[in-house]
Amino acid sequence: MSFTQSNGGVWGQKWRSSPLFIVSAMAMALFTDTFLYAFLVPILPYVLENRLGLDVSLTQSLSFSLLSESAITALIASPIIGHFADRVPNKKGLLLGSLGAALLGSIVLALATSAFTLFAGRLIQAIGSSCIWTVGYATIASNVHPEHLGKTYGVISLVVAAGTSGGPMVAGILFELGGYWTAWSSAFTILIADIIVRLLMLENPKSKESTTAYGDDDALDPENAPLLSEAGSVLEPEVTGWKFYIYILRQRRFVCGVISYFSFAVLISSFDTTLPLHVRDVFNWGSLPAGMMFFALQGPGILLSPLCGWLKDRVGTRWPTTVGFLLLAPIMWIIGMPGDDRFPWINEGNRGIIIYAIGVTLVGSVSCLLNGAGTIEATITIDEVEEKHPGIFGPNGGYSRALSMVSMSWTSGAFIGPVLSGYLAEHVGYYEMNCVIAVICALSGVNAFFNLTTTKLHQNRGSECS
């Protein structure tokens, strides 16, 4: 969508290519992606048991198999997408392709009347999701000034939380009030809005992606690029292929960020397959209250994520991430008690319901401290390495490849989370499952304390803008 004016310019080029609009467009894309991913959760039992006609005993196993499919697909697709995304200066084509995949996958899912079409639709959706998470976050990193990095990722986390909580909440409410196709109408409405925004976006030719971190506008032109950076460092040979991943995995804070993001994903995704069935079996709740519990899990991020982003700009990522994980450990332990006969005092009257609801809300609130743990560390690591070794990641930088690894860590956790929690809840017990997640949180807190830094984010990148 590029309307040419009589003077030869493109209609609205200034605001359509502004960093604010580009970041807003990526936020909309990430909202749509997370909305579509979580949308199916509360209506999945109906789809499996009524539309597909499967036995009720298969609901648990097929639920976490379907929800984990996206993670497996992304684990394979993300590094491939990241490799090619860093090879092209203009990423709009990849972004539009991801939108097309999301639309096609949603249509197939909505029309599915067999297990094959259901899994096929989810597969198509997952490919588009991998693209938007890798390319979208790289586009954001290329358009954000250093002093706003934490706040921006905080707002993006807010949008992602809104999509993650809004998906199941809207699906559950509309399904309860109007039925299956009324619920799906909300998903297609959001997709249409995303199509409009994505077509309006024009990539900014003056973004960081098309200039160097040292203010040299000619650095991307091999004929005009200087042999020395402003700091007097010789431009180094580009690290390509598998050597890039080996090099980046030698960076301690990057690895810690990836592990933290993995643990965060395990924590959050563990609710996807266990929460709806647990509240149904223990509290006799249906789709509507289950959807409200997902809102309690993700909703606090709407208010707290920007504040946590501001905090990370001020004090770095070490303390927020450490405190977040260590607080989540006892909360997850307590959440496992309601409905367990070994804790009769907690199940008297409505006490178990109250404790469970408060516990889930606290998880949503405290986990805001973990938002952006992987993406911030990846962005800062790439900037630090490129500052010390100009040109090492090529003319288009290494954001997409680094962030593809962050995406892989998240999706690995999103795969292991439902599988681990579903298996433990079904074969061992819901309480034991929560104890395992609590241990993971405690260990992740220790890891963050020893391997992340307390340096302010704008200090890490401040030399780039000087």
Automatic annotation (TrEMBL):
Record-annotated membrane-spanning stretches: 20-44, 64-82, 94-117, 123-141, 153-175, 181-201, 254-271, 291-311, 323-339, 351-370, 402-425, 431-452
Cellular localisation: Membrane
Domain Major facilitator superfamily (MFS) profile: 26-456
Major subcellular site: membrane
Gene Ontology molecular functions: transmembrane transporter activity
Claim: Transmembrane helix is one of the keywords in the record: yes
Membrane topology note: Multi-pass membrane protein
GO cellular component terms, semicolon-separated: membrane
CDD domains in the cross-refs: MFS_MdtG_SLC18_like (cd17325)
Pfam families per the UniProt record, alphabetical: MFS_1
Family: Belongs to the major facilitator superfamily. Vesicular transporter family.
Protein name: MFS multidrug transporter
Lineage: Eukaryota, Fungi, Dikarya, Ascomycota, Pezizomycotina
